Task: structure prediction
Amino acid sequence: MEKARITKNQAVVKMVRTLSLTVLLGLAIYTLVVVFILKDFSTSILTLIATHGLLFTSTLALTYRNTKGAAEQARFIFVLSCMTLITLLSLMWEQDTGLQQFLLVGMITSGFIFPRREVRNRRFAEFTYGALYVIVEGVIVFSETHTWATLRVSNAIILVVGGIIMLRLLRTRFENQAEALSISEKRNRALLKSMLPASPDNPAKHWPLGHTQKINDVSVLFADLQGYTKLSEQYDDADIVNILDDFYRLFDAHALRLGVEKVKTNGDEYMAAIGIPLTYIHDPEEGSNPTHTICLFAQAILSSFQMLTEEKGLDCNIRIGIATGAVTGGIIGAHKPHFDIWGKTVNRASRLEQASKPGTITVCARTRGHLLDNHVEDMTFSDHFVVGDNLVAHTLYSV
Result:
């Protein structure tokens, strides 16, 4: 929210900067026309133009300052300078030049120069511009017939009052629609970000569809509910879904806390990994080891699972398998894009989960080697055993 506000404020500052440059250019052209074309060397008019040139130059300088309040000061000085310049020029010519019409332009545009939160400045600008327009119109037509002067001033009042009412209605509608669109865009971005990680080449963008890439040193975890078929016989479908939702919410909470990326769920199977791009912001602790983290995650979900099953009286258990190595990650297919990982490391993690005894965590030799190399002291392992023909595995224990 704060970031969006800063971005919007910067846009307003750029607009004031552009307008200030435009007015300075206009003053320069106006001076040339007055001096060289109209041959008017009136000291009062040239002094007025020079003075306001300095004011708009000050406004321009303020737009480049990053100090607190500089942007608000620039907006206020700009609007005030426009008011006095147009009003005084209109009165100095002592005839109907049409310059006073720019006061109406100022009344309409001032609401866009001041952000929505600066309500007082916005209302001050609108009412002051309108009041000055009526006053200037009255002064200009003062020497005219009573009927004509009354008509001009009445039209000016109606134009100002009607303009402010219409302006308020249209701007309120516009701002409400813009705010609703902004909220919708934020929700869409948040939803997309929760589904797709950042691009490997440009963190500001999402992972491109159809792009796959090899990622080294990834630890993959599979967790599977043992006794799921028996539960399905005891509970109806809605209850089973609620049970799985309770489990997965606990797992997700641990994943977010530790910086583990949930890859997907498949029925009663939960897949996660560490070392792949995250779909959320996480600052790892200094000196933390990813392989150690995935093992801590496994122990956390095992403990949470056992506590929840005991609390609900569920007759089931969980098996967990972890493998470490290289994977290929990316998004394939065009419908329902989803970041996934593939490769031998993923297959090993799945095989280790299937070979695990209920209520245990089984890791591959490479995962164990990473922990031993980093001198992890809060975990121990069983003697090795072979899964299938050649997959060396160990059961992970806490100290």
